[in-house]
Amino acid sequence: MSPVIHLAAYRELGLNWDFRRQQVQRGTLNAFLSGADTQLRGLAVTMPLKPEALQVATFADGLAKATGAVNTLVPATGGDWTGFNTDVRGIVEAFRGATGEELPSTGSAVIFGSGSTAASALAACAELGMKELTIISRNTEQTGAAFQAARRMGLCISAVAWHQTEAVNLALSAARLLMGTVPAPVQDALPMAQLRINPNSILLDAAYAPWPTPVARWAKSCGAQIIPGWEMLLHQGVAQVKLFTGEEIDAAVLRPTLLKVVNSTD
């Protein structure tokens, strides 16, 4: 969906720019950048290349360093690249758009998964004022990217494994914000039938294809408000457009074009 967002933005800004997908194998990003077109104004990087993008970036913004993930690369002088993390912005704006209000500073958040997207979710939830942060993952060894990011950011978090049903339900019952970062193809393996969430909570699932995801269906059945993953994608894309072009654009202007494509693929 990124080309949909970017091309619509460039048209709106009156720029005759192109944006296309390019498959780059793990371990070859640096070689790809070395041979990149000199007219290239930036790259939107997806998994599994986000940690690798941080390694190849000569410079990186604070969020990229804190989360350990770069999803945006912009050329600098002398063949160097600057790395940014706009996923955090995408998550923050998606939640703010759904609540339409300031979230309570004493709120709590639960994140499903412990990878790079979960690391960005931690940073976003901290920015939104969530004081109690819980990561639910396959085990409690705390080796994932999100746990490493939490240590870099000085965040005090709780770690719960999916099989610890009582502890998981306790965290879910108190959570105001829920963030899903588990890929859609493996969500069916999660023990959701044994779990119940706070019906006043809001779930943002980073996965969006196919939609609704198993996690989104489960959360909706429990009464939670659902934010589709393309809202996060939209807002982080708007931030990328600003980095590439230097121009501001309102997400609301691009949303109809994105939804038209999303609805046509349902």
Question: Keywords for this structure?
Answer:
aromatic amino acid biosynthesis; Putative shikimate dehydrogenase; Rossmann fold; shikimate 3-dehydrogenase (NADP+) activity; 266 residues; NAD(P)-bd_dom_sf; Shikimate_DH-bd_N; 11 helices; alpha/beta; 2 domains
Write out the strand line-up for the largest beta sheet, numbering strands in chain order.
7-6-5-8-9-10
Helical segment tally? 11
Q: Please give the alpha-carbon distance between the first and last residues.
A: 13 Å
CATH architecture of the largest domain: 3-Layer(aba) Sandwich
The CATH top-level class label of the largest domain:
Alpha Beta
Report the CATH topology name of the largest domain: Rossmann fold
Written as H for each helix and E for each strand, in order along the chain, the element string is HHEHEHEEHEHEHEHEEHEHH
Going by CATH, the homologous superfamily of the largest domain would be: NAD(P)-binding Rossmann-like Domain
Mean pLDDT: 93
Low-confidence stretches: none
Helix fraction, binned, reads: 40-55%
Question: What would you call the structural class?
Answer: alpha/beta
Oligomer: single chain
Pfam family, one: SDH_C
Organism: Mobiluncus curtisii (strain ATCC 43063 / DSM 2711 / V125)
Protein name: Putative shikimate dehydrogenase
Pathway: Metabolic intermediate biosynthesis; chorismate biosynthesis; chorismate from D-erythrose 4-phosphate and phosphoenolpyruvate: step 4/7
